[in-house]
Design brief:
0% strand; Histone, subunit A
Length: 108
């Protein structure tokens, strides 16, 4: 009986314990590279933005261009927390505030 190489690999994988088989099958599958994933996300975003109405495009542009002064957010967070904060926490809070206020504005 002639066994092809692919069949032999499958037989070898099935003789391993389950977690080894899972890891081997996970890493043997071809995955898109990071650049391919970024490109796919860009294409999805372009498709979504192209379907916006004029008012939605205006709202999206305003949202993209709006920022909160990080110095003010840092001062406020330091007053609330009572200590120094890493820059990443300030950036995250600025983003959360931006999204929260845009949702609040849309609900009005």
């Amino acid at each position: 009986m002639i066994v092809r190489k692919e069949e032999k690999q499958q037989q070898d994988l099935h003789s391993c314990p389950y977690y080894f088989w899972f890891l081997a099958s996970f890493f043997s599958e071809s995955r898109p590279t990071m650049e391919e994933e970024v490109q796919q996300e860009r294409e999805k975003l372009q498709l979504l933005v192209s379907a916006f109405s004029n008012s939605q495009q205006d709202q999206y542009e305003i949202f993209r261009r709006s920022t909160f002064p990080k110095a003010s957010i840092r001062k406020l967070m330091q007053n609330v927390c009572g200590g120094s904060l890493p820059q990443n926490a300030v950036i995250a809070m600025a983003g959360i505030t931006k999204v929260g206020l845009s949702n609040f504005e849309l609900s009005l």
